[in-house]
Amino acid sequence: MTDLHERLKTLIKNSDYDYKSLSLEIGQGERYISNLLSTKSDPGFTSVIKICASLGVTPNQIAGLNDQLKLVNDDIDNRIVSAHAERILTSVTREAHRKLSARGTGPLIDDVLTWWHQQHGVLSNFDRLSEHVDLYHAPDADARLPQPYMVGEQSLARVSFGVKSAEHLGYLFTTFDHGLTEKVKLAHVEATKGEPQLSIQEIEVNLPNHSFPLRFNYKRLLLPVRDMQGNQYILNYSQALE
């Protein structure tokens, strides 16, 4: 059976697009489709829907199923799109959870980024991931310190700093060096602009009950997210460096 990538090549060949123009049409870099086909990687659900709309086909046709209904950019049946999207999203979420269970460890940076892209930054399908991340209120112009909202049971802050709650983490920020807290706050401000912020951090902090500063090295991913009511947050997922 012809695989997805071969079917997609054929559909593009029979369309008015080439790889570059289709990539730009769906809001990606000009080599997105070329790279997708050459590496045989899986497109995310958002890209699948945009590709289908541009080519005038359905996800079932790309998947090789017998479905001749067509989607046209100006006249997309939202019920069809929603049904396909829900099935694809459920499958992606189930597979991500299976991989996490199989590893028996926390998620990878790629897992968190995949979830964020699939959910469009909305805090849904979040239960298992929530154990490993911290949420902060999105900073406003007058914020003096980072403002923790939720601390995950298995987040790096809880495990390494012994943080017990968002209030506890908020208190610790008042005891840290001003330069450190300002750096964290500015990173949160940058994340509110809409793009993931991935960095390597090396910090020294004085924690209660320790007579000397402790040094931490970790990877930090900051993502702009929002809840179902539209409240804005910054998601912090950090992994200690070995």
TrEMBL record:
Q: Domain (HTH cro/C1-type): give its ranges.
A: 32-62
What GO MF terms are annotated? DNA binding
**Which SUPFAM superfamilies does this entry report, sorted A to Z?**
lambda repressor-like DNA-binding domains
**Could you identify this protein by its name?**
HTH cro/C1-type domain-containing protein
